[in-house]
Amino acid sequence: MAYYRQAGQIPPKRHTQFRNSDGGLYYEELMGEEGFSSDSSLLYHAGVPSAIVDSVVWELPDLATVANHPLTPRHLKLHDLFVSGAGNNVVEHRRLVLGNGDVRISYVIASEVSPYYRNAIGDECVYIERGSATVETVFGVLSAVEGDYVIIPRATTHRWLPGADGVQAYCIEANSHIAPPKRYLSRFGQFLEHAPYCERDLHAPGSVFVVEGNDVEVLVKHRGNGAGGIVGSRMTYATHPFDVVGWDGCLYPYTFNVSDFEPITGRIHQPPPVHQVFEANNFVICNFVPRKVDYHPLSVPVPYYHSNVDSDEVMFYCGGDYEARKGSGIALGSISLHPGGYAHGPQPSAIEASLGAESFEELAVMVDTFRPLELGEGGAAVDDGVYAWTWAGRRL
C-alpha cells in the first residue's frame, strides 16, 4: 500500500536520535516487505522490540488437508461448524475449511477476547460476515463492522475483541502479501480513475495505542515442519508490544468495507475479474455486490458456464440472494467449491428465471486460487455430499 500515513510522535529525520522526556532513546523498528525493497513503516518503541524472556510451543489446531479426489464440486455449510461463539476467540478457534500452499481459508464464530497474535507467514484478510470487533494492533486500533475486510500485514502483533453480539469471521491467510490489484494503481501506487475503490475507502488506525505491561505472551504462527509447513510458538516479551509512540510509512493494517466497492457492469455479462478487490501470490479475492445487471435486450444476467482451467473457485455467500445458485441448496453461510478442470455455471432453472432482471441483491466473497485446494477438517465436516449432482438432478 503506497499510501503514506503517520500517527503519534516521530523524529523529523529517519534513523536519527529520538528521545523521550527523560532523555532516553526510543527504539526504532523498520517493518518492511521483500527484503528492504518494498513497502515499509518505521515504528518507535518505548521498550526493546526484540526483548523476549520465554518461547514455548503453541500447539496449533488441526491444519491437515486432504485432496479433493475424486474431483468434485462441493457445498460446505459453514454455519454448521459452530453452535455459538461462546468460549471461542478469533485466533485460536478458527476451523480450517480449505487450503493449499498459498492460502488457507478458515471460519470462526467468536465472543471472547483473543490472545495477542502475530502471523509470521503472510498477510491476513479477515472478512466480517456478521457482528463487529475492535482490533488492537501495534499500529493503533481498528473498528471492524459487518462487511469489512480487515487487512493485517504479516508480522503485525494484534488481538481481537468481539463486540457485544460477537463476530462471525471468514479468515483468508496468505503465504504472501495481500494488496489491491496492480491494474487499479498508477506506477507510483495511486488508485486510478477506473478502480472500483480508492484511498478514501481505506481506514487505518488514526492514532497510536500505547499499553504498559511486562512479560506479555504473543502467539506466533510461523514456518516449520507442521501440517502445511506451519507451526506455532508462544513468545513472551519483556515489555508490552503495544509501546509504539509513533510510526509512519506505507505498511499498516486497514479496513475496507464491501459496501464501498463500486460495481462495474455492462450491456452483457461481465467476467469475474471486474469484481476483483485484492490480489496475492497465486490467488485473488473478488466480491459480488448488489448491482444493476446486464442491459442488452437479449442479455442473460446469470453467468455463462465456464471452465476456469487454471483455478479453483471458492464462493462464500454472505448476503442477499445469489441468483445463479437457486435450486442447489446454497444459502447464506454456504461455500461452493468449483475445482479447476470442471465446467461450472448456474443451475439450469436459474437461467430462464434471471431473464429480464434489472438488478441482483447478492453479496458474496470469492477466492480464486491457481493451485488446487484441499479440504481442511472444517470443510470435510460440513460438506453436504449432494451438491455435485444438482445440475443433473440425479446420481448413478
Automatic annotation (TrEMBL):
Residues 282-359 form the Homogentisate 1,2-dioxygenase C-terminal domain. Pfam families: HgmA_C, HgmA_N. The keyword DNA damage does not apply. Its cofactor is Fe cation. Keywords: Dioxygenase, Iron, Metal-binding, Oxidoreductase. InterPro entries: HgmA_C, HgmA_N, Homogentis_dOase, RmlC-like_jellyroll, RmlC_Cupin_sf. Residues 107-257 form the Homogentisate 1,2-dioxygenase N-terminal domain. Gene3D superfamilies: Jelly Rolls. Belongs to the homogentisate dioxygenase family. This is Homogentisate 1,2-dioxygenase.
